[in-house]
Q: What sequence folds into this?
C-alpha cells in the first residue's frame, strides 16, 4: 500500500496479558522501525528490520518484547506479560533505505490496566 | 552515538507571526539527513521538511524553512505567518546510521 498501516488502533490489556501489534509497511520499503511513545511524548526506538532480518534491536527490552517481519505477512510486535508502564502509543515506520525520511503509521494506543 | 537536543520544551506564537524552533545534534558522521516532523493531537507524524547534510542550501517548504548550520550542528525550523493549525508537537530528527528523535517542542498558536 501507499501508507503504513497499523492494527489495531487501540488495544486494552490487563496487566500480565499478552499484546500483539501489527504493521504493514509501504510497498517497496525494505526497512521497518518500531517506536514507543509514552505520555511524555519522547520517542523510544525499539527495533528495526531490513526485510525480514533484524537490523538494530538495541532498544528492545528483551525480556518481554519480541518482533518479527516475515515475508508476505505484516510485521508484528509482541509484548508478553504486559506491565502498566507499557502503556504507550506504538508507532511503526518504514523507509526505502536508511537515511531518507521514515513514513509513519497512525500508531497503536496500548492501554494496560 | 548520535544525539538530538531541542532546548525549548514549549513555545508560543501569535497567529500570523514568525517563530523559530531550535535543534542541535551531535554526530561524527559526515553524511546524514535531518528532518522536522509535526505531531498534532491526532498523534499522526507528519514530515514537515528535510535537509540533506551535503546540501548547503537551506530547505524550504512554503511557510516552513530551516537554518542549517553544519559546522555548528544546528538545524532550526522557522514557521512564518503562523496559523492555528500549526499548533502541535514538533520533533527534530537525525538520520544517518541510526534514526534519532529530539525530545520535542510543543508549539501553541495564540489567536
A:
Amino acid at each position: 500500500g501507499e501508507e503504513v498501516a497499523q492494527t489495531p488502533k487501540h488495544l486494552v490489556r490487563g496487566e500480565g496479558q499478552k499484546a500483539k501489534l501489527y504493521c504493514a509497511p509501504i510497498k517497496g520499503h525494505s526497512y521497518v522501525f518500531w517506536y514507543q511513545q509514552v505520555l511524555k511524548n519522547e520517542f523510544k526506538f525499539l527495533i528495526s528490520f531490513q526485510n525480514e532480518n533484524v537490523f538494530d534491536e538495541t532498544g528492545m527490552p528483551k525480556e518481554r518484547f519480541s518482533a518479527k517481519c516475515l515475508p508476505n505477512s505484516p510485521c508484528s510486535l509482541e509484548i508478553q506479560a504486559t506491565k502498566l508502564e507499557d502503556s504507550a502509543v506504538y508507532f511503526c515506520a518504514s523507509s526505502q533505505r536508511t537515511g531518507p525520511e521514515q513514513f509513519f503509521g497512525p500508531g497503536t494506543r496500548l492501554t494496560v490496566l | 552515538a548520535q544525539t538530538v537536543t531541542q532546548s525549548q520544551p514549549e513555545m508560543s506564537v501569535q497567529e500570523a507571526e514568525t517563530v523559530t524552533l531550535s535543534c542541535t545534534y551531535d554526530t561524527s558522521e559526515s553524511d546524514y539527513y535531518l528532518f522536522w516532523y509535526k505531531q498534532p493531537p491526532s498523534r499522526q507524524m507528519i514530515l514537515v521538511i528535510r535537509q540533506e547534510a551535503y546540501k548547503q542550501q537551506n530547505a524550504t517548504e512554503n511557510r516552513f524553512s530551516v537554518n542549517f548550520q553544519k559546522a555548528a550542528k544546528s538545524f532550526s525550523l522557522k514557521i512564518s505567518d503562523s496559523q492555528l493549525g500549526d499548533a502541535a508537537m514538533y520533533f527534530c530528527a537525525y538520520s544517518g546510521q541510526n534514526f534519532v528523535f529530539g525530545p520535542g517542542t510543543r508549539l501553541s498558536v495564540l489567536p
About this structure: Chain A has one domain: 5-112. Residues 20 and 78 of chain A are 4 Å apart (CA to CA). The two ends of chain A are 34 Å apart (CA to CA).
